[in-house]
Write a structure and sequence with these properties.
Layout (H helix, E strand, L loop, with lengths): L4 H4 E4 L6 E3 L3 E5 L16 H11 L6 E5 L3 H16 L39 H12 L8 H21 L15
Antiparallel strand pairs: 1-2, 3-4
The chain binds zinc ion (2 copies).
The site of one zinc ion has 8 residues, from loops.
Length: 181
């Protein structure tokens, strides 16, 4: 496929890349997206038009028979286009805005899990508790005692809040803490 063909021939087939001569039959696709000015597809045979279908996924399409221009017509057309490009620029459409790829939304913390969330916050200083138990008994302490102990503290505090409210105070005092537990 020598490039000298460019002078003697018109344009290349979009499928097989063979040159299509001047004043010859060629085919285009009826689908508008295949006929944009810049990317206009053309085919030397209907078979070559057929070949592009595999990648295009057209719903309804057919080959449209065309005649290539004569060389002088083509040259006139090129000159006309060059003039148009140098003078009043044809409205260039800005490149399609690519939507920025959003990172996957961070997964919400498993708030549904009963073991997390503000209502299950640990209220006990783990190291203090562990050293108390160790000093008292020589035993180790599992991390898992912190949650139920915190629940007990919450219940006690809720009662203390109620006691302070009944006394119309805005401060929870030591005497609000229920005794005898
Ligand atoms: Zn072809
Ligand atoms: Zn097409």
């Amino acid at each position: 496929m020598d490039e000298a063909g460019a002078a003697a021939q018109w344009r290349r087939c979009s499928s097989c890349k063979e040159w299509i001569g001047f004043k010859t039959l060629y085919w285009v696709c009826n689908v508008s997206t295949c006929n944009r000015k810049r990317t206009g597809l053309l085919f030397c045979t209907v078979r070559c038009w057929d070949a592009h279908l595999s990648s295009m996924n057209h719903r309804e399409s057919w080959a449209v028979e065309k005649h290539s221009p004569s060389r002088s017509e083509w040259q006139a057309e090129q000159a006309e286009q060059a003039r148009a490009n140098s003078g009043g620029k044809p409205a260039e459409r800005p490149p399609p805005q690519r939507r920025p790829v959003r990172p996957e939304p961070a997964r919400a913390p498993a708030a549904a899990s009963p073991d997390s969330g503000p209502s299950r916050e640990i209220l006990v200083v783990a190291s203090r508790l562990k050293s108390y138990i160790l000093a008292r008994s020589g035993m180790n302490t599992s991390e898992r005692v912190l949650a139920p102990l915190s629940d007990i503290l919450r219940r006690v505090c809720d009662e203390a809040i109620e006691n302070a409210r009944r006394s119309e105070r805005k401060t929870v005092l030591d005497r609000d803490i229920p005794q005898g537990r």
